[in-house]
TrEMBL record:
GO (cellular component) term, any one: protein-DNA complex
Gene3D superfamilies, alphabetized: 3.40.50.2300, 6.10.250.690, Winged helix-like DNA-binding domain superfamily/Winged helix DNA-binding domain
Origin species: Aliikangiella marina
Name this polypeptide is given: Proteobacterial dedicated sortase system response regulator
Gene name, Swiss-Prot/TrEMBL: pdsR
Residues annotated to bind DNA: 134-230
Entry GO MF terms: phosphorelay response regulator activity; transcription cis-regulatory region binding
């Protein structure tokens, strides 16, 4: 069965170009031009992946609202923001809401297809490799459950996305060992740039600090990457 992709974009030309390219790759693409139209469809059935424009008509943050809804329904559904906006604020805002990737509209169609394919490969790899992973990892106050993709700190649950889970998983599997950005991207089965990895790390730190203000276990090793302090 073809993978179902929801494409939410209010500009007709862009929507049709991306839909045509995705369909040529064998995807089942459902297009929506407004937040309300997409939301109504999502309430009936979730897609396998969502590509969301941020500004939708008169709603400058319509895509963010859709992301919140989708992430509340599923922690593992891949979400990509496709937008004309290109600033650190917008990138971090999108990632903070739980998106997996963030693409500007000047990116080539070929690159969009690569990102979509990579996210689907990640989901497939996670499913096929799940039995090979240690289901439960406990490091100090941290507990990761790879069978359910959940994390907790000192018995308090942490709201965590799938990308964040596998970045964290890669760090804590070998405490004290440095993981560079490429290794963290590989662990998350994601194709993202350096700034996106940095944003995910920042988000993870904030979630731990919210539970324990003195948290300092995720350490930046300048020029090399990150590690979970042993």
């Amino acid at each position: 069965m073809a993978r179902r992709i929801a494409l939410v974009e209010d500009e007709k030309a862009i929507r049709e170009n991306y839909a045509a390219s995705l369909r040529k790759q064998g995807y089942d693409v459902l297009c929506y031009e407004s937040k309300d139209q997409a939301l109504k469809a999502f309430e009936t059935r979730l897609p396998d992946l969502a590509i969301l424009d941020i500004g939708l008509g008169a709603e400058p943050e319509g895509g963010f609202e859709l992301c919140r809804f989708l992430r509340a329904q599923s922690s593992t559904l891949p979400i990509i923001f496709l937008t004309a906006l290109d600033s650190e604020f917008d990138t971090i805002s999108g990632l903070r809401l739980g998106a997996d990737d963030y693409l500007t509209k000047d990116i080539s169609l070929a690159q969009v297809l690569v990102r979509v394919s990579a996210l689907f490969r990640r989901i497939d790899a996670l499913k096929s490799n799940l039995d090979q992973e240690q289901d439960l990892i406990e490091v100090g106050k941290l507990q990761l459950d790879a069978s359910r993709f959940v994390a907790s700190w000192d018995e308090h649950p942490i709201e965590i996305t799938l990308t964040e889970f596998w970045i964290l998983h890669a760090l804590v599997k070998r405490p004290g060992h440095v993981k560079n950005r490429d290794q963290l991207m590989e662990a998350a089965k994601a194709v993202v740039d350096d700034s996106t990895v940095t944003s995910h790390i920042k988000r993870l730190r904030k979630k731990f600090v919210a539970l324990e203000p003195e948290f300092d276990r995720i350490e930046t090793v300048y020029g090399m990457g990150y590690r979970w302090k042993a």
